């Protein structure tokens, strides 16, 4: 059995299927990232609002994991390095029926021009 990694809690479920802040403000995202410590789902740094990075900065939670289907990488904000890591509590990614970018009804037709 492997040792726990400080800052990664494999028992915590994701906060929801989409970016927590964008969902409450009618925003949209490009890709989603999951806080490996508390499960917060935020939008990636290419998204207009960059909520995953803002969450890490405000909480000190250093590890994120992709919340995209087929991706299982971790990233550490502390040392700006990619990592492999353990599976987290399900689900491992947003619903397959959810659009990328999303949510579909809020993504502008010219969404590419708003990416960072």
UniProtKB/TrEMBL annotation:
PROSITE patterns: ZF_UBP. The keyword Hydrolase applies. SUPFAM superfamilies: RING/U-box. Signal peptide: none annotated. Residues 1-101 form the UBP-type domain. GO terms for molecular function: hydrolase activity; zinc ion binding. Residues 85-109 are annotated as: Disordered. Keywords: Hydrolase. InterPro entries: Znf_RING/FYVE/PHD, Znf_UBP. The keyword Hydrolase applies. This is Ubiquitin-hydrolase Zn-finger-containing protein. It comes from Rhodococcoides kyotonense.
